[in-house]
Amino acid sequence: MDHAETIDLHELTTGIVCAYVSNNPLPADRLPGLIQAVAGGLQALSTSGEAATASEPAVELATAAQIRKSITPDALISFIDGKPYKTLKRHLTKHGLDPYGYRARYGLPADYPMTCPSYSAQRSELAKAIGLGSPGGMRQAAE
Questions:
Q1: Is the pLDDT reported for residue 50 higher than 50?
Q2: Architecture of domain 64-130
Q3: Where are the CATH 1.10.10.1550 domain residues in the chain?
Q4: What CA–CA distance (Å, rounded) separates 135 from 138?
Q5: How far apart (Å, rounded) are the C-alpha atoms in residues 120 and 116?
């Protein structure tokens, strides 16, 4: 590989990593691994024309039965660690995922909830009680 190809790979790696980091939460300690993975993938593409294999293990897509069982009235069962959560957003962020990435990774439908039904109902009742969603509702609740 000559000097021009090396510069191009560095520029491509920088561009890809910058784009990824600007749109995805990533802990600082995982940044070197991301850079190495992207650089290695680009290097493999430039030398053999094939993508390098991913270092993450392949994840099995959830079956319809598993999806139904993961949604209970009081909790959502995470496909990452199998633990129950009232809301998955913070849990997913800790694992470097967002709701869209989580759904795609496990083959979940686009309408898969991120909060359990009882928690959603509780929050809805609270919002209605303080007048959210009705014109002047907050002012009327204060009076």
A1: no
A2: Orthogonal Bundle (1.10)
A3: 64-130
A4: 8
A5: 6
pTM, two decimals, is: 0.53
Q: How far apart are CA 99 and CA 22, in angstroms?
A: 17
CB atoms inside a 10 Å sphere around CB 108: 18
- Burial of 62-87, coded b for 16+ CB within 10 Å and e otherwise, reads beeeebeebeeeebbbbbbeeeebeb
Q: How many Cβ atoms are within 10 Å of 42's Cβ, its own excluded?
A: 18
d(CA 41, CA 68) in angstroms, rounded, equals 37
Contacts of residue 32, defined as CB under 8 A and 6 or more positions apart, other chains included, come to none
Q: Which residues are paired to 115 by β-bridges?
A: 87
Structural Rg of the chain based on CA atoms? 22
The string of pLDDT tens digits covering residues 89-120 is 999 999 999 999 999 999 999 999 999 999 99
